[in-house]
Design a protein that fits this description.
The complex is a heterodimer.
Chain A lengths: L1 H4 L3 H23 L2 H17 L9 H19 L29 H9 L3 H12 L4 H8 L3 H24 L1
Chain B lengths: L2 H14 L4 H13 L1 H19 L15 H23 L7 H26 L3 H29 L4 E5 L2 E6 L2 E6 L10 E8 L6 E6 L7 E5 L6 E9 L13 E4 L3
Helix pairs in contact in B: 1-2, 1-3, 2-3, 4-5, 5-6
The chains are: A mainly alpha, B alpha+beta.
Amino acid sequence: MERVRGGDRVAFERLYDAYHRLVYGVALRMLGDVSSAEDVTQSVFLTLWSAPERYRTGNFAAWIARVTRNRALDLLRARASHPVDGEVPATLPEDDVLEDVAAAHLDAERVRAALARLPAEQREPIELGFFAGITHQEIAKRTGVPLGTIKTRIRAGLRKLRDALEKAVTA
Amino acid sequence: MSGHDEFLDDVAVYALGAMSEAEAARIRTHIAQCATCRAEYEALLAPVSALALSAEACTTGERGPQVSPLLKRRIMRSVEASVSPVSRARAARGSVLPAYLVAAASLVLALLSGIADIALQGRLHATQQRLAAITERDEALLRDVALQRHMVADLMDPHAERIPVHGGEVVVHGTRIYLAMNHMPQPPKGKVYQTWTLPKGAKAMVPSVRFVPDRSGVAVVALPADARRLAAVAVSIEPPGGSKEPTSAPVLEARLIE
């Protein structure tokens, strides 16, 4: 990133090569169409190029994934088709991301495997909350599960996922 | 379950990013004051960050969603387009063009290069559905280009009204109004600049667009308001999500010419 801050296009290209699948994947999962996912990917990387100071510290993958998610939420908010009763959740601060370098050893396969081992009743609200761009109230409405139960399941599922990922990193 | 356990559940929902703005603000305030909830929030950042990895697109040869190589070309061409004119402008000391105008022109070039790539995609992916999507995006890009051309023309027009402000100027051209900054410092960490407009006869400022200048302090902001109906514009430093009313003293203010 230091070289990108200095306007090094080769360094920027390497960053793109390393992280474009993550950015595009998150955008595609959230928005559901190739065209919008490409637009978000382009927007995230061009913002990174024009304002690299927005990344300050911490795990870069976590940071760029959060920026992507926030950008996709902005797009969902702008879409007239998004349900009015399903308020799009708040975007989260970009700087408030993971500092843990151990997470850099995680890969998509390990995370998918850990997610797959969660009970469906915990995995479903977690995936809806992260990728569907809806609030926990909307999750409760869609799944027919009481709001308090949804919140408890999200917390229990995230803690279980954290434990599984810690084991995967140290294994 | 204790009351605080319920708060911890809310912290998990907040960490996941599945809360409305109002609830998120409440939890943010609580986390800042409660060590237990702060620790819980930080502990959940790792699994939430890892969730994004689960959506990573596939590499070539794998089954699943893949990224078009044309996307990289489009992005790199935009990068090239954004660099070259600015570099030339920096090299040409004494140029009459202000930095913000060079940046605006490079944005037009970037958009045009995007259109060229989309035309290529149309040839390669000759399905009707894809063509329809490309056409739709072409039209959106063309609209963007038209807007950017208007902007460049407005900013270059010698008849435009120019109100000097610290680090740049406010440019008024007919009904359109721009904030064109050449030397603007970066906002403090975790903050952005937010523009405000004061309609004629009104007492309170109306929130408008937020922005961050580029590394060289350049920013061109088109304000979404009818310039003829405005009495003043201002800029203040605000949180990234913006504010409904200014929370800090304005860093610049401009009274518009009657």
